[in-house]
Amino acid sequence: MKNVLNALRVLEEVAARQPIGVGELARVLDVPKSSVQRALVTLHTAGWIRPGPGEVTRWVMTSKALAVGGRAGSDLGLRDVAVPVMEELRRRTEETIHLTVPEEDKLVLIERLETSKPVRISMALGHALPLHASANGKAVLANSRPEVVRRLLATELPRYTDTTITDPDDLLAELAKIRARGFAVNHGEWRSDVGSVAAAVVTEPGKPIASLSVNLPVSRLTAESETLYGAAVAEAAKTVSGRLR
Predict the structure, then answer these.
(1) Are residues 58 and 175 in the same domain?
(2) Which alpha helices (DSSP H) does the chain contain, by range?
């Protein structure tokens, strides 16, 4: 079982950081190189990864992962369209980029591209984010039908940090602000050290299907970067929306 878990962890990190070598994987996962190498051989033999171009072996994902992911859900087409846009957004911002999708009363992270900066935001694929306390969630709420927002406000909004919005009127005012400027901002409302700027992917009015976000430590989310990243992520989300219509 331990070997299986190691292989899955290696697979996830290859997906997030590709192309990546055995040494970097060992450092990121804090496991011996020999264990990482065994996992890489297993994943390569099974067809999940392959060596990337270049003299030094660095691993990348194969299309098998996308195919299996597509059978597990309906977001394969979204990923296909979004990933190139996410790559450009990462190039422009040099920060970690997330793609999330709504699932009942939360957002689920389905794709991420990480920054090369040493201090970064790390979150596993499949992680759930709250609607009212994340930039992704607020972007989705701001573009959802009124009844969706009313249903959320009919329940108590959990507080995660000192800056979490828990008052319904305050949240409604925040959503109006998001609609006016085209993007949402999170200043440590879910995790006190995490900042993000997000915009919704909308192909039909009132029904956002996803959101894109730029994610970074709160210390790097300044007034200037907020404006720049907000414009960039709004443009990226609009591009994804247009390509999916």
Answers:
(1) no
(2) 2-17, 22-29, 33-45, 63-72, 76-93, 135-142, 146-153, 168-181, 223-244
